[in-house]
UniProtKB/TrEMBL annotation:
Source organism of this protein record: Marinobacter alkaliphilus
Sequence ranges assigned to domain LysM in this UniProt record: 50-97
Endpoints of the signal sequence: none
Record protein name field: FecR domain-containing protein
Pfam families, per database record: FecR (PF04773), LysM (PF01476)
Domain of life: Bacteria
Database matches in InterPro entries: FecR, FN3_sf, Ig-like_fold, LysM, LysM_dom_sf
Length: 545
């Protein structure tokens, strides 16, 4: 009896709504929007409920243990459904359960990628923090993108890709008892999202996106949704979306779009989307650039290209343009998903043509031109020249104290040039230089190092402190970047005419053992591998009582 009533109500509703839109199926939305409920309207309005379909081999006792809160009995559920306490239900039959009676297991969402300026607003504290990869999104949280994008993965694997200048509020992230019975409701306050919803169990889950002017309820589909002060719109790529203003929801199938205006007297405009453009063949793996995406002319005046990273789902670019070509030469190494769609006269995005490409650029070792190996220069800002051997490469010159480049002195900026100056003047001394090239953002190659001598005089070395301990004196002096070693002299008079000790020291400190009661004088100068003159620093007096 209950099944016959349910079938008649459902059939009547479908007949009425279908007649409003020839060729497009209508939506059947209960208070628990997205679940198909056959409950009387007055009961649904007073108590939002879940309609559950029994599976093969499943008993009411199983349902009570897996779905119901501890304080709720299966007897209460039977009474709610106007069924006797000894009722026996079989597979395929349905029961209604108030949402308040179900086990609630909060399931946070996680950020799989974030780029640019995107903020995370806590729903409990109101604190704003930058959104980063692996950030956790909980019920009540907000994500606000300004000049950035974010990809958010829900507990069931569904994916939300936020465009720049968007605001998304997570009103509900709940799993009821069993895996697959997820209840997700988010509010798109402004902006745009690309949504890929995992197929959900019939009568067992729901997914809604609400805007200030409309709501979209789905059961497993791919669609885009936009909202602004003038209204909301949706474009369905796969599956169906139940979309519209409250009380005026229509079912929008794949290949169609709909818009609900806040100003127009017409509650909803439904139209077929422009077909997907026909892409010209493109090499799936690009080992050199430039390259372009092109497509056949189909009568459209403008197109939109969206580029996503395949791995993390990052929304990298969204461009609108005339013509039939798009330059993709600025992509770094990686795998990408490209979506191309025509725009209709209202600027609505059509069905996308989707292709995947991989960029795999390899940097090649540059050839050094000048200075020549071991060359001496008089300029403290010498020009370095080289030749790049790859495509779409940038390079920089690196200058170090050692041949292994463990002690880097300075470098130039990354640029696609073949010559550069150091970023700061070089003190006199011997250096090593090389050129490092980069392609695709992660492939690098370095030339062999070359020796270089900057002519001049090494600066005098100043002693900075002297420590006394028993009969020992420790002397500390300044470091000279290009010095290989230091020479220390000890004398008994300030003119250093009678040297009593002289030694080469690799460090910037030395310990001396002196005779108490006598005066000494010490000085230091820097030494280099190159033919550089050096000067003694000022002498310091030493005395032990």
């Amino acid at each position: 009896m209950l099944d016959r009533k349910r079938q008649s109500v459902t059939g009547l509703l479908l007949l009425i709504v279908t007649s409003l839109l020839p060729g497009v199926a209508a939506a059947e939305i209960s208070v628990a929007r997205g679940s198909s409920s056959a409950a009387p309207a007055q009961q649904s309005e007073s108590a939002p409920e879940w309609v559950y379909t029994l599976r093969s081999g499943e008993t009411l006792s199983d349902i009570g243990q897996s779905l119901l809160m501890d304080r709720v009995t299966i007897g209460q559920v039977l009474q709610y459904n106007n069924l006797p306490g000894n009722a026996r239900l079989s597979a395929g039959e349905q029961i209604r359960i108030p949402l308040a009676w179900l086990k609630r297991q909060p399931e946070p969402a996680r950020v799989s990628s974030a780029s640019g300026n995107v903020m995370h607003v806590s729903g409990t504290t109101g604190q704003k923090t930058p959104l980063t990869e692996n950030s956790v999104i909980r019920v009540g949280d907000e994500v606000i993108s300004s000049a950035g994008t974010a990809t958010i993965v829900l507990a069931d694997g569904s994916e939300l890709r936020m465009a720049p200048n968007s605001r998304l509020i997570f009103n509900r992230l709940t799993q009821y008892g069993k895996a697959g019975m997820a209840d997700t409701r988010v509010r798109l306050q402004r902006g745009e999202v690309h949504t890929r919803v995992k197929p959900v169990l019939e009568d067992g889950a729901r997914f809604e996106i609400e805007t200030p002017s409309a709501v979209a309820a789905v059961r497993g589909t791919v669609f885009s949704m936009q909202t602004s002060a003038s209204g909301s719109s949706v474009q369905v790529t796969e599956g169906v979306v139940d979309f519209g203003q409250p009380g005026q929801v229509r079912r929008i199938p794949a290949g169609y779009g709909a818009s609900a205006s806040t100003a127009s007297a017409i509650p909803m405009n439904i139209r077929r989307l422009p077909p997907a453009p026909v892409l010209n063949p493109i090499t799936p793996v690009l080992t050199q650039l430039p390259a372009e995406l092109s497509w056949q002319q189909d009568g459209a005046n403008r197109y939109r290209v969206d580029i996503f990273e395949e791995d993390g789902g990052t929304w990298l670019q969204s461009r609108e343009m005339p013509g039939h070509r798009f330059d993709i030469s600025q992509l770094d190494n990686g795998r990408y998903e490209l979506h191309l769609a025509a725009l209709d006269r209202q600027g609505i995005t059509g069905m996308p043509a989707i292709t995947s490409i991989e960029v795999d650029l390899q940097a090649r070792t540059p050839d050094l031109i000048s200075p020549e190996p071991g060359e001496s220069v008089n300029d403290d800002m010498p020009e370095f020249q080289w030749r790049l051997n790859g495509t779409n490469e940038v390079a920089r010159v690196e200058i170090a104290e050692d041949e292994e480049f463990r002690r880097l002195i300075t470098s130039s900026e990354w640029a696609p040039d073949n010559r550069a100056l150091p970023s700061r003047p070089l003190s006199p001394g011997q250096y090593y230089w090389r050129v490092v090239s980069e392609a695709g953002g992660n492939s690098v190659a370095a030339s062999q190092p070359r020796a270089l001598v900057v002519n001049g005089t090494l600066p005098p070395v100043r002693i900075i402190s002297i420590n006394y301990l028993d009969n020992q004196v420790r002397v500390f002096w300044e470091k000279v970047d290009t010095a290989k070693d230091y020479r220390l002299q000890l004398a008994e008079e300030p003119g250093f005419n009678n040297i009593i000790k002289e030694a080469n020291v690799a460090d910037t400190t030395a310990a001396l053992r002196l005779i108490p009661g006598r005066r000494y004088f010490v000085r230091v100068k820097a030494l280099s591998d190159g033919p550089l003159a050096s000067r003694w620093g000022p002498g310091r007096e030493l005395y032990l009582d």
